[in-house]
Write a structure and sequence with these properties.
By secondary structure, the chain is mostly helical. The protein contains two helices and no strands.
């Protein structure tokens, strides 16, 4: 089950990458909208992790 969930996530991530690469294309396909949402969430998660790592540095990363 875990492997199929990971494969599904990779598929959504691939679709998200394609969706983010062409944001000017308007789409009403729910799958595309979900893929874009996943792409944005992944970007935010990465940014959050970077901010947390910076806060752990001596001096708060500032």
């Amino acid at each position: 089950m875990h492997e199929s969930a990971c494969a599904a996530h990779r598929g959504l991530r691939d679709r998200a990458s394609a969706a983010v690469a062409a944001p000017e294309a308007l789409s009403t396909d729910p799958g595309d909208l979900v893929a874009r949402a996943y792409a944005l969430l992944e970007q935010e998660a990465q940014a959050w992790q970077q901010r947390q790592r910076a806060d752990l540095l001596p001096g708060g990363g500032r």
